[in-house]
């Protein structure tokens, strides 16, 4: 079944920034959204909630997708489902992530492994697995959007003037996972630009979500606007190597 609208896959689409980004995209009426979550029940519940928020949303513009980014078999099965139903993918938004392990009793090595498993390895395997579908797309503005964080930038971590430096927020496990995501994005940005596929990192800012126990400074609806901009706006040729953030505050610290 070929999608008549641009096809967008969002991981972790059932809550937080993923759900907020899906809401923005759905309200434009220009996209068919693959709402990826760890269970079909969660994906379908998110679709129902999104549809209940707006009577103008196209009810046929959603497909639930079971996808656990820490499980390679789940990723391959999801890619096969997209292949069978649509044959290609236009935009991939790697949004799913965690700030710390769910189990607070884990040792240091296990804590790093748990966060990197989702935040880093999940992004890398998702991109590699879905890249053939992006390559099969004839959409003129194919993109891979990796949701990162300014906390992963070395310049911000070391800057005495940054309110998000290491003295304010140590978070070595989370910070280092997002630094790794930034490097994955930088390499993909250069290598895939030759194929007309933009890979770009985005920092939505410190938003109130389950991710941080709802302690963020702003509503995820606002933070998700940066994700949407990274996925749909701007000249892709000019965005290679850029970092899309919520308020353009990262420029002074460099793309590190």
From TrEMBL:
<dbReference type="GO" id="GO:0005737">
    <property type="term" value="C:cytoplasm"/>
</dbReference>
<dbReference type="InterPro" id="IPR057326">
    <property type="entry name" value="KR_dom"/>
</dbReference>
<dbReference type="GO" id="GO:0016491">
    <property type="term" value="F:oxidoreductase activity"/>
</dbReference>
<feature type="domain" description="Ketoreductase">
    <location>
        <begin position="6"/>
        <end position="160"/>
    </location>
</feature>
<dbReference type="InterPro" id="IPR051468">
    <property type="entry name" value="Fungal_SecMetab_SDRs"/>
</dbReference>
<dbReference type="InterPro" id="IPR002347">
    <property type="entry name" value="SDR_fam"/>
</dbReference>
<comment type="similarity">
    <text>Belongs to the short-chain dehydrogenases/reductases (SDR) family.</text>
</comment>
<protein>
    <submittedName>
        <fullName>Putative short-chain dehydrogenase</fullName>
    </submittedName>
</protein>
<dbReference type="GO" id="GO:0019748">
    <property type="term" value="P:secondary metabolic process"/>
</dbReference>
<dbReference type="InterPro" id="IPR036291">
    <property type="entry name" value="NAD(P)-bd_dom_sf"/>
</dbReference>
<dbReference type="Pfam" id="PF00106">
    <property type="entry name" value="adh_short"/>
</dbReference>
């Amino acid at each position: 079944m070929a999608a008549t609208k641009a096809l967008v896959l969002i991981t972790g689409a059932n809550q937080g920034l993923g759900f907020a980004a899906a809401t923005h995209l759905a309200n434009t009426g220009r996209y068919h959204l693959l709402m990826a979550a760890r269970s079909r029940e969660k994906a379908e519940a998110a679709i129902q909630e999104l549809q209940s928020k707006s009577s103008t949303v196209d009810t046929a513009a959603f497909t639930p997708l079971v996808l656990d980014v820490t499980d390679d078999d789940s990723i391959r099965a999801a890619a096969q489902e997209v292949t069978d139903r649509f044959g290609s993918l236009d935009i991939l938004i790697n949004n799913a992530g965690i700030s710390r392990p769910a189990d607070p009793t884990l040792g240091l090595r296990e804590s790093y492994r748990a966060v990197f498993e989702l935040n880093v390895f999940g992004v890398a395997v998702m991109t590699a697995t879905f890249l053939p579908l992006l390559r099969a797309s004839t959409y003129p503005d194919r993109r891979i959007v990796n949701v990162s964080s300014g906390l992963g930038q070395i310049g911000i971590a070391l800057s005495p003037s940054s309110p998000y430096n290491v003295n304010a927020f140590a978070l070595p496990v989370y910070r280092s996972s997002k630094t790794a995501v930034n490097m994955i994005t930088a390499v993909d940005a250069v290598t895939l630009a030759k194929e007309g596929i933009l890979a770009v990192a985005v920092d939505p800012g410190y938003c109130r979500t389950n991710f941080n126990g709802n302690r963020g400074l702003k509503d995820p609806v606002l933070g998700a606007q940066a994700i949407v901009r990274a996925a749909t706006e701007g000249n892709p040729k000019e965005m290679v190597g850029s970092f899309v953030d919520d308020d353009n505050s990262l420029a002074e610290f460099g793309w590190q």
